[in-house]
Automatic annotation (TrEMBL), chain A:
Coiled coil: none annotated. Its main location: endoplasmic reticulum. Part of the multisubunit transport protein particle (TRAPP) complex. This is Trafficking protein particle complex subunit. One of its GO terms (biological process) is endoplasmic reticulum to Golgi vesicle-mediated transport. InterPro entries: Longin-like_dom_sf (IPR011012), TRAPPC (IPR007233). SUPFAM superfamilies: SNARE-like. It comes from the Eukaryota. One of its GO terms (cellular component) is endoplasmic reticulum. Keywords: Endoplasmic reticulum, ER-Golgi transport, Golgi apparatus, Transport.
Automatic annotation (TrEMBL), chain B:
This is Trafficking protein particle complex subunit. It comes from Rhododendron simsii. Keywords: Endoplasmic reticulum, ER-Golgi transport, Golgi apparatus, Transport. Its main location: endoplasmic reticulum. Residues 199-209 have a biased composition (Polar residues). One of its GO terms (cellular component) is endoplasmic reticulum. The keyword Ion transport does not apply.
């Protein structure tokens, strides 16, 4: 049982800069994940256009038949989204935590170029721990 | 998907989970993307003209469907991204939420799409969508004068739909009364936004009782601590 199935991070222009799979069925190749990420970027933008009232900041939660997609957009336009089991709670907290890890271990890395794919060992290690902790917390609930 | 639970419309419409008459818009599309019905109750912001708006909405739903079909983490064979899928094929979605609105979506096996845009804190509207679909089958599809694929102009459908949305409001008034009875310290204010008919804009006690009697029964009262 997986609490979250996968994690995507896309930069402000819709390019996929980080993708990690945590046990979804079937293989998704690199091209597919890139396409999905940019598709999500556009859907997010269109949903703001269709808002009946002012001040819409895009989709936060998409409820599909077999999964939930939780999205968090940072102030700079970087979007973090996780695919989780339907009805999973507290995903906002996890997303905020991942955002913190991103600011600490990616943005503060002097060798990281902005808007480019993330290759930071420390980020990977800490992310794995955060996801594991979330999973343990889910089992404990 | 179960839509064929008998041709009769259930006598009591599903209870609104919404905490009020907070609907914004409603769309009905057929499988070719033609907007059969568009209703608007409360929409202060118009970014596009009506036709462009309908096109954008249909495009959003179409693309989101192909996205969810491809992203489905439980199926092994997902096909290629962007290949059109038949209604009911592949993983679809039933709602999404932004900070300002919630969109609930249903697609029938024949490709009729019903979309409700409501307040972001509205509950699950799948039952309401099914009920509206049943109304469509009863009053539009079975209408001999209706040509499929044309905008819906059926008086009975319109009036029943209006009545359904009005009954949402009445349920809310009843709920408010119940809340006041249990917690007299709670002030309850009901804001009624633009209504479709002038007589909807006031829901007096008298009127609510009147319509209440025309409803078949009121469901058992929810426990006072249940969330709205």
């Amino acid at each position: 049982m997986a609490a979250i199935y996968s994690l995507y991070i896309i930069n402000k222009s819709g390019g996929l800069i980080f993708y990690k799979d945590y046990g979804s069925a079937g293989r998704m190749d690199t091209n597919d994940s890139l396409r999905l990420a940019s598709l999500w970027h556009s859907m997010h933008a269109i949903s703001q256009q269709l808002s009946p009232v002012h001040g819409c900041s895009g989709i936060e939660l998409l409820e599909a038949d077999t999964f939930d997609l939780h999205c968090f957009q940072s102030l700079t336009g970087t979007k973090f989204f996780v695919v989780s089991e339907p009805g999973t709670q507290h995903m906002d907290g996890l997303l905020k935590q991942i955002y913190e890890l991103y600011t600490d271990y990616v943005l503060k890395n002097p060798f990281y170029e902005m808007e480019m794919p993330i290759r930071c060992e420390l980020f990977d290690i800490n992310l794995a721990q955060a996801v594991l902790k979330d999973r343990v917390a889910l089992l404990g609930r | 998907m179960q839509f064929f639970g008998g041709s009769e419309i259930s006598p009591s419409p599903p209870l609104p989970t919404a905490s009020g008459n907070n609907g914004h818009m409603m769309y009905v599309f057929n499988r070719n993307g033609i907007c059969l019905l568009y209703r608007e109750w409360n929409r202060p912001l118009h970014t596009l003209n009506a036709q462009q708006d309908h096109k954008l909405m249909f495009g959003l739903l179409f693309s989101l469907k192909s996205l969810t079909a491809k992203m489905d983490p439980t199926s092994v064979d997902k096909g290629n991204l962007g290949v059109p899928q038949l209604p009911g094929q592949g993983c679809s979605f039933h709602s999404f939420r932004t900070n300002t609105y919630k969109l609930s979506f249903m697609e029938s096996p024949s490709g009729i799409k019903i979309i409700l845009v409501t307040h972001p804190r509205t509950g699950d509207l799948r039952e309401s969508l099914k009920y509206i679909y049943n109304l469509y089958v009863e009053y539009v599809v079975k209408n001999p004068l209706y040509t499929p694929g044309t905008p819906i102009r059926c008086e009975l459908f319109d009036s029943t739909l209006d009545q359904y949305f009005r009954s949402h409001l009445i349920h809310m008034v009843e709920l408010a009364k119940l809340m006041v009875a249990h917690h007299p310290s709670f002030p309850v204010t009901i804001l009624i936004t633009t209504a479709t008919k002038p007589d909807n804009s006031t829901a007096t006690d008298n009127q609510s009782r009147l319509i209440h009697h025309s409803c078949h029964h009121l469901p058992p009262p929810p426990s006072p601590d249940s969330t709205l």
